[in-house]
Amino acid sequence: MNRDRLIALLAGAQDYLSGQEMSQQLGVTRGAVWKELSQLREQGWPISSSTRLGYRLDGPPPTLSGPYLEGMLGGTISSGHIHVLDRVDSTNTRLKAMAAQGAPHGTVVAALEQSAGRGTRGRSFSSPPGGLYLSLLLRPQVELSQLFSLTGWVAVAVRDAVEQASGAPARIKWLNDIYLNRRKLCGILTELSLVGESSEPDYVVIGVGINLAQDARTFRALGLEGVATSLSLEGYPVEVNHMALTLLRALHAMAQQFPQGQQAYLQAYRAHCLTLHQPVEVEAGGRTYGAMAQAVLPDFSLEVVDGQGNPHQITSGRVTPCPLHPNS
Predict the structure, then answer these.
(1) What is the pTM assigned to this prediction?
(2) What long-range pairs does 162-165 form, CB within 8 A, spacing at least 24?
(3) What is the DSSP letter of 108?
(4) Which residue did the predictor score with more confidence, 117 or 115?
(5) Which end of the chain has the least Cβ crowding within 10 Å, N or C?
(6) Burial class (CB in 10 A: 0-12, 13-18, 19+), 13
(7) Domain 279-324: which CATH class?
(8) What is the mean pLDDT of the chain?
């Protein structure tokens, strides 16, 4: 029988499901359903049973599960298109290959570890076990110019999801890093593909890597001690399926509001941006200089003023608040 469909049925049910109901929906015998449920229980799935009522899933599974996420998400844009792997080179790389083959809007690739995670500007992104690495495919029907602000929207959605799932008061470091207690908690990589040689958008892949359960020893071994942190290390542990569900719901809501809800996302970005009104080091346009971060502009670019009083609008590059700089 199809175990994935059985899991999705249980996850999507509001209460108990009888063996008869499940056997009818799956087109198998009640005995086959019972056997499959028994095996899931042996693997750590919290499935309770009642002689009169049937079976119920009482909590998240023992590890990240695509069918569980699909059942919990119901009829959202990702339902039926969630792919979960234990380990992958890069969820963005894998999803971009699927997008090129016609994968639909809402397709998700998620993993517990990446062997070749990628960050902005070609940097590698450390992706050890203990994190959630998730990429979402969108095919927005908008003008190319409207997509330039999407990364700012994603930062807001991810920050909100982290706080909602764990209670952690995360903040945004311009443009697309999520920080907690002055250490990096989450990285975001948004990649755009155009149709052929035209300027028409084909798809966007949104990649998110959140540190959930790594310990200090893990970051020390990676040379990231004092630079990166995890929710568990900071006292905000969260179960991986719960984090994935909260994140996908936030990204789905964002996709539905884009681009009409620009003002609300811009206000939220400004409210949670730790870079604002701070002395910063700017690496952009082939030069590095000190400046003061003055404002997040309507397109999510950053306005800074250098030491000579000259204003600069930063649309790409690296901006590091001085208190966060490793050499400060």
Answers:
(1) 0.93
(2) 162/186, 162/210, 162/231, 162/243, 164/246, 164/250, 165/238, 165/242, 165/243, 165/246, 165/247
(3) E
(4) 115
(5) C
(6) middle
(7) mainly beta
(8) 93
Question: Residues 142, 258: contact at Cβ < 8 Å?
Answer: yes
Instruction: For CATH 3.30.930.10, list the domain ranges present in the chain.
Output: 66-272
Q: Tell me the backbone φ, ψ of residue 316, rounded to 5 degrees.
A: -155, 165
Enumerate the CATH 1.10.10.10 domain ranges in the chain, comma separated: 3-57
Residue 293 β-bridge partners: 304
Give the position of tokens 């084909």.
Answer: 202
User: Which residue has tokens 């404002």?
Assistant: 295
The identity of residue 99, as a single letter, is A
Upper half-sphere CA count for residue 47 (Cβ side, 13 Å):
25
CATH node for 3-57: 1.10.10.10
DSSP for 259-317? TTTHHHHHHHHHHHBTTTTSEEEEEETTEEEEEEEEEE-TTS-EEEEETTS-EEEESSS
Tokens of 172: 């945004």
d(CA 279, CA 283): 13
CATH 2.30.30.100 domain locations along the chain: 279-324
**What are the phi and psi torsion angles at 165 (to 5°)?**
-75, -35
Record: fold of 66-272: BirA Bifunctional Protein; domain 2 (3.30.930)
Residue 234: CB partners within 8 Å, gap ≥ 6? Answer: 168, 180, 181, 185
Give tens-digit pLDDT for 285-321: 889 999 999 999 999 999 999 999 999 999 988 999 8
- Whether residue 328 has pLDDT greater than 60: no
